[in-house]
Write a structure and sequence with these properties.
By secondary structure, the chain is α/β, with parallel strands linked by helices. It has a single domain, classed as Metallo-beta-lactamase, Chain A (4-Layer Sandwich), CATH 3.60.15. The chain contains seven helices and 14 strands. The strands form two sheets. It has a seven-stranded mixed beta sheet with strand order 6-5-4-3-2-1-14. Strands 7-8-9-10-11-12-13 form a seven-stranded mixed beta sheet. The two termini are 21 Å apart. It binds zinc ion. Zinc ion binds next to helix 2. The site of zinc ion has 7 residues, from helix 2.
Length: 259
């Protein structure tokens, strides 16, 4: 499984860090996780193609995670440059309700033209694709928020927290994950409800038994301080910090040398 960080930032415009979005290649599928402003541009720069994405998975529909889905659907319907491949959009029930309302607002511009579009409710059942299974776990941010657990058939497990505060749901989602991508929106000492600081992300990863922790979703002030050390102290292992364009190969536990 391979993760490419497209945007390691937040809603705050930031020259260094784009709004949330990740490309995941897993099983025989190509997935986009969240689709904030600028995601399509950064996907192209990373060598991807919006028309080749099989699924877009959403953690929630705050606009930093969701804002560019209108552009993706509109572009997908273009006569020459649009897509032919089927597309699935997946998220929680409340998220899909908002997505449907958004489509109604813009009418045919956001309805599929030339390709088939499915909406998949992760609250009803996991999404089972070509060699990949995706489950959603309710987390403490907004009612529509879900941490996403991606399991490759016979392979690695990747969990993405989305935005969350401390809660059991994210620990369950990240149980024994080979890579846990966890938000750490604000520096230590700047706790903001609905989000995590690095030591909290580290503690969640430790509770979950995650093998590797990648901190993500940084407001600009995070780049003025040491975010890694407090997380590593709580996790009990080194941690990594996401950057736009970063590529991470995720190996299942059995393929790693014993440490
Ligand atoms: Zn966010």
């Amino acid at each position: 499984m391979r993760l490419t960080v497209l945007g390691s930032g937040t809603a705050a415009p930031n020259r260094r860090r784009g709004a949330p979005g990740c490309l995941v290649e897993a099983g025989r599928e190509t997935l986009l996780v969240d689709c904030g402003a600028g995601t399509l541009d950064r996907l192209l720069r990373a060598g991807g193609d919006p028309n080749r994405i099989d699924r877009v998975l959403f953690t929630h529909h705050h606009l930093d995670h969701f804002g560019e889905i209108g552009h993706l659907l509109f572009a997908a319907g273009l006569p020459v440059h649009g897509r032919r491949k089927p597309l699935t959009l997946a998220g929680s029930g409340p998220l899909l309700a908002s997505l449907r309302a958004f489509q109604m607002l813009f009418g045919h511009w956001l309805m599929p033209t030339g390709f088939s579009l499915k909406l998949h409710d992760l609250d009803e059942e996991p999404l089972v694709g070509e060699g990949i299974r995706v489950s959603g776990y309710a987390v403490d941010h907004i009612p529509a928020s879900r941490a996403l657990r991606l399991e490759e058939e016979g392979g690695a497990v990747l969990t993405l927290s989305g935005d969350t505060d401390l809660c059991d749901g994210v620990v369950t989602a990240a149980r024994d994950a080979d890579l846990f991508v966890c938000e750490a929106s604000f520096p230590e000492g700047s706790k903001t409800p609905g989000h995590l600081v690095p030591s909290e992300a580290g503690a969640l990863a430790r509770r979950a038994g995650a093998r590797r922790l990648l901190l993500n979703h940084f407001y600009p002030e995070c780049d003025q301080v040491d975010m890694a050390s407090p997380a590593a102290a709580a996790f009990g292992r080194p941690v990594e910090l996401a950057e736009d364009g970063m590529v991470v190969d995720i190996l299942p536990a059995a393929m790693k040398p014993a440490s």
